[in-house]
Amino acid sequence: MTVLVAGAAGQLGREMARVFADEWQVVALPRDELDITDQEAVLRVIKKAAPAVIVNCAAYNDVDGAEVEPVTAMQVNGLAVRSLAEAAKQIGAMFVHYSTDFVFDGETDRLHCESTDPRPQSVYATSKLVGEWFARLAPNHYVLRVESLFGGGEEPAVGGRLQSGSTLDRMVDALLEGRPVYGFSDRTVSPSYVPDVSTATLELVRLQPEAGIYHCVNTGSATWFEIARAAAGRLESDSDLLPVTIDEVELRAVRPKFCALSNQKLAAAGIPMPTWEDALGRYLAERQAMALGKME
Length: 296
Ligand SMILES: NC(=O)c1ccc[n+]([C@@H]2O[C@H](COP(=O)([O-])OP(=O)(O)OC[C@H]3O[C@@H](n4cnc5c(N)ncnc54)[C@H](OP(=O)(O)O)[C@@H]3O)[C@@H](O)[C@H]2O)c1
Hints:
By secondary structure, this protein is an alpha/beta fold. It has a domain at 2-152 and 191-219: NAD(P)-binding Rossmann-like Domain (Rossmann fold, 3-Layer(aba) Sandwich), CATH 3.40.50.720. Helices cover 41% and strands 16% of the residues. It contains 10 helices and 12 strands. The radius of gyration is 19 Å and the shape is globular. The chain binds NADP nicotinamide-adenine-dinucleotide phosphate (NAP). NADP nicotinamide-adenine-dinucleotide phosphate binds at residues 6-7, 9-13, 31, 34-37, 57-61, 76, 98, 100, 146-149, 152, 164, 166.
């Protein structure tokens, strides 16, 4: 069976293509092979590949950039999802799409469930919510909300830092190099390890629970500062750890404060997610092995 991965050069897309490749025929399409905003190309390419499953990892993810490029953000995160979902519907394919914790306003101290009402506070968040709505056009759809992805950076040919790394990837770069690390002490998240999200997606496709929205994050939550402290402890890093608050940093787009997600619905569907501490441990072991490999 064939799976088509759109946005295959991104951090999640690369890993998704790799995880599916063991059992599936993978058509992995980076942006230069399929621009998802090209409605005609989407239909043509999807009809030609005739996949059983379409996994959309493409997105406009620049949260602050979206405030000045709202049209592009809406085209990629919103309208293009309509084209993909409609194409999926036409060929009877399953459609898997990813959304974000940013659809919530974060004004709470309780875990968000799939039934919690979204209240996006930025252009990026609004565009992702529109994408969630359009994904429903495919009868057999899954919208997986992920959050603070990490562990999908590419190992560079030269030098120790990961390319196209996420916030946590960059924190670990700094910890390994002994540079100071800043972390929000008032933003609580449920980090999502890219390999765990990819494996969960493969399981979801296999188990095919009821269509709809699922929170696909590692279990538990912490502030970014707590995550930095946990990583520093495991790496025995000498870096200075500096807590900052959202108000202290000049940012164009609003950041929701409390965005921990409950993944109980996914667990009830037979896909329990490891804790973020477990995921962090595996990720740091991998980064240390990578750093050691470079020294040898
Ligand atoms: N990263 C996070 O922490 C996070 C948090 C919450 C939700 N998510 C969601 O998780 C999913 C995967 O995110 P990610 O972190 O893997 O993203 P990523 O690393 O930024 O990758 C996104 C990919 O989409 C491609 N892309 C952009 N516009 C496109 C277009 N018009 N047509 C085709 N491809 C296009 C990008 O190509 P270029 O590089 O050429 O632009 C990039 O390769 C997305 O839905 C994202 O919104 C991510």
